[in-house]
From TrEMBL:
Chief place of localization: mitochondrion
Residues binding GTP, per UniProt: A21, H22, V23, D24, H25, G26, K27, S28, N113, K114, I115, D116
Entry membrane topology: Peripheral membrane protein
Subcellular location, record wording: Mitochondrion inner membrane
UniProt keyword ATP-binding, yes or no: no
Entry-linked CDD domains: EF4_II, EF4_III, lepA_C
Record protein name field: Tr-type G domain-containing protein
Amino acid sequence: MEKLDMSTYPVESIRNFSIIAHVDHGKSTLADRLLEITGTISKTDHNKQVLDKLQVERERGITVKAQSASLFYNHEGMNYLLNLIDTPGIQAQTVANFYLAFEAQLSIIPVINKIDLKNADPERVEKQIEKLFDIPTDECIRISAKQGTNVEKVLQKVIEKIPPPQCNTADPLKALVFDSTFDHYRGVIANIALFGGEIAKGQKIVSAHTKKRYEVNEVGILTPNEQPTHKLYAGQVGYLIAGMKEVTEAQIGDTLFLYKQPVEPLPGFKSAKPMVFAGMYPIDQTEYNNLKSALERLTLNDSSVTVHRDSSLALGAGWRLGFLGLLHMEVFNQRLEQEYNMSVILTAPTVPYKAVLSSAKLIKEHGKDQITIINPAQFPDKFSVSEYLEPTVLGTIVTPHEYIGKIITLCQDRRAVQKDMLYIDENRVMLKYLFPLNEIVVDFYDALKSLSSGYASFDYEDAGYQSADLIKMDILLNGNPVEELATIIHNDKAYAAGKLLCERLKETIPRQLFEIAIQAAIGKKIIARETFKSGSDKYGGDITRRMKLLKRQAEGKRLMRKIGNVEVPRDAFIRVLKRETDK
Ligand SMILES: Nc1nc2c(ncn2[C@@H]2O[C@H](COP(=O)(O)OP(=O)(O)OP(=O)(O)O)[C@@H](O)[C@H]2O)c(=O)[nH]1
């Protein structure tokens, strides 16, 4: 492939930008249009949403992973290099991100999409934006990413409003690793942004993080596929391949510099805070090492996942993983299956609770009097604790006013406390609620969408911890605890949740040859019970059918988990846990 000469793009001609929006608001579509306009992809290219690359992204239509692309654009006789970072859309945090960008004094270009829709009402949206964010109505650009209307204006505004990066090619090389991927043939591909100097094949570089030395094999830009260039210069964004073999060698946030010209490392990134934790175990312990390497590769690709080794009597050696949210967890699991052919056991998700310890023994054991609990198995009982704390978030809901009643009931049901209520125009209301995080992680968004016919939007940000009356609830099958389903839960919700889980399990596990008691318990106290009658009469007299079923059952054994003497399908737990979403 012909190498590009990037020296014709000095810092003054460079603009770096990203698109921030809620899931489904059209980021990927807009990104595709921008690629088309700038000739980066052809209009006839039927491969829609070029920036969404993963199979899971295509199937679900959501962007999991940030992808970058460099766009070449000529405006009023000047050649510009516009670097687009397509941000992941799996978090409902547009409003929070707006304030972060605002505080960091980044330029913000408000864009209203989908104006081609029949019921689009851009005037009203502009007024809302003015009311909520203090952005004058005439600053908004009204576009249709789908039809391409006014998309070019977005590029022009990017050039006008965003200042070029502040750095210099004459300085020593300073490259920030902002993402990295693993390629089976070429090893680690690090995505880099140059904050100074230049980089080319043959140079000897050092990682500030690992202190390891490398020789650069290839550099290039992302269009969004890798396109080799002779060099990369200060202000430019691209990729580098330098014989890094281990995934741990290209840490996101690391600084790369020339061996002969050491520099002060860049501050790196504040790592994203996991909101949901779950245990992950191989179905079969002989798969442990394969799963370990799959996890390493996938987390290199998705650095917002945290991984701690963990083990359980029932499930063997495994990990405790932290995710940004439940959708993130599901998508990660799906990627393990699709990209690495790995099936795993996932335990019930839990949020990071805290306990203020009162027991001198425990305080000594932990070396501190406050601990974070990300695993129900480590839940200290109430006699050794002076207070439990649960994480909260400040949620912002914007809804047409006819749904207010139902939404307020939903929020109250989720133990939320109203903080604000504001009419942003004659028929739209903004509600702010303080939610316990665990009340929204599983299915709040779906519940909100379904009771508002899809019209209410939801956004949340971290709001610290509050005191909570928590207990640990176990689920038992014939007296044996099901480790996957142990949960930490608010006392007020335990009875209802226990009953629901037992009912669900009863629907999910196959009939066995003996009676099964399905129970929910707090300590030794049983709070709910379902009895599952023996199923010896299920197949009637049809002996061939019975034989066939037994054979299928034998084949399915690998997919079963034995708890005491009860066989449970591996996926039963996930099905049980997804509450309203699959009703
Ligand atoms: N009518 C109309 N539909 C649009 C427009 N832009 C995007 N869409 C549609 O809206 C849906 C979501 O678009 P995406 O581009 O996938 O949205 P996204 O913001 O990237 O979503 P995530 O990847 O989940 O963050 C798709 O069905 C698009 O076809 C538009 O201007 N008009």
